[in-house]
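Design request, tokens follow.
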């Protein structure tokens, strides 16, 4: 069944805001980050602030650390980790909707898939109050699926290739992540 465009946009917006509200509620129930990986990135950002960019003894994809460091010029790491990353993580709702609508052409099934994608317990619990690259990697992965489904359009090919390259530079997201050495 097809909903009119305004109804779809409103429903999708409500789902996004609901998922974001749940994520922010849980994020602000704890005073700090909840996992040790977050503190690894906090230490990485503080070493970048001291001018130490070599990170001896570690082999990992640096994109997330540099993103966190760059954001620290404009906001606190707490705000970046608890608000900005939760905004990005909640955006999985939009990408899941687009993937599902392209595959099924059913508005209601796509809205349900979007709601479920935003509330996956494992994704929610591992990214709600942490400085985690997974908050970017999972929505990026779903976006890449959507781009792959429309790769016959020339503009999507370049976006898809750029997304694959970016995905490879996120720690824990691709084969370039090797962890501690």
């Amino acid at each position: 069944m097809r909903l009119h465009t305004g109804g779809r946009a409103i429903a999708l917006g409500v789902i996004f805001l609901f998922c974001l509200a749940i994520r922010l509620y849980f994020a602000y129930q704890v005073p700090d980050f909840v996992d040790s990986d977050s503190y690894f990135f906090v230490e990485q950002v503080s070493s970048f602030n001291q001018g130490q960019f070599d990170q001896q003894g570690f082999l990992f994809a640096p994109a997330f650390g540099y993103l966190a460091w760059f954001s620290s010029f404009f906001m606190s790491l707490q705000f970046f980790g608890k608000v900005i990353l939760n905004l990005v993580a909640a955006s999985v709702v939009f990408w899941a909707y687009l993937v599902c609508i392209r595959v099924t052409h059913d508005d209601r099934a796509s809205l349900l898939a979007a709601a479920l994608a935003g509330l996956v317990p494992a994704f929610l619990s591992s990214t709600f109050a942490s400085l985690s690259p997974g908050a970017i990697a999972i929505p990026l992965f779903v976006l890449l699926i959507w781009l792959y489904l429309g790769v016959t359009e020339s503009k999507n090919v370049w976006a898809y290739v750029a997304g694959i390259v970016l995905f490879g530079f996120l720690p824990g997201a691709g084969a370039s992540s090797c962890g501690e050495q």
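Comment from the thread starter after seeing the answer: thanks! Residues 150 and 156 are 7 Å apart (CA to CA).
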